[in-house]
Amino acid sequence: MTTSDSRVRQDIPTPDAAIEILMAGNDRFVAGSTLDHDHKTTREALAGVQRPIAIVLRCADSRTSPELIFDQGIGDLFVCAVAGNVPTSELVASMEYAILALGTPLIVVMGHSSCGAVTAAIKTIAENTSLPGALPNLISQITPAVREIEDISAETALSEAIEINVRNGVERLPDMSEIIHEAVDAGRVKIIGGVYDLASGRFQRTS
Ligand SMILES: [Zn+2]
Questions:
Q1: Taking residues 84-91, what's their average pLDDT?
Q2: DSSP state of 154
Q3: Ligand 1 geometric centre to CA of 166 (Å)
Q4: Which of 56, 160, 191, 199 is the most buried (most CB within 10 A)?
Q5: How far is the CA of 65 from the centre of ligand 1 (A)?
Q6: In terms of pTM, does the model score above 0.90?
Q7: 15-205: what fold?
């Protein structure tokens, strides 16, 4: 095993360098050759500081942990999670903190295959049903992606909606936040999107 070299970064990488670090980490994860993370040393060194290289907007699904998927350690990723990986106002505020206070140079909007939240959004539209509890408010933020699918009964409807939902997130972030908008315009931050495949472990960029 190789020892992680990302411990206690002194500098924040550029947006493109951050993308390269994540994609290389995902290659290692797919291949089953992840780094030997020394969590104890890193934890102690980072007790008073954090310099995450990317914000990851991910689904709450238990199989989509970005630190594992991108083979990163403690302090490397600023993770914002909600079922269906939609940019809710609280998550956008969290991202603003990372950009302003921590200088994080990259936002990754990550959908994933077989997403239960997107499946639920398709179901509510296809069957004209409603969900219990607080779910309708959340699912209503995914349904715009479902409404863009040409054939909701097609076999590809779910994967199509998952991709569109990611794209909507990428596009909406600068509209939802002046801070994000300005950081992107100034070249300090990039926003990318992609879909994580549960079986292969591959994160496939879609934008
Ligand atoms: Zn999901």
A1: 98
A2: S
A3: 11
A4: 56
A5: 11
A6: yes
A7: Beta-carbonic Anhydrase; Chain A (3.40.1050)
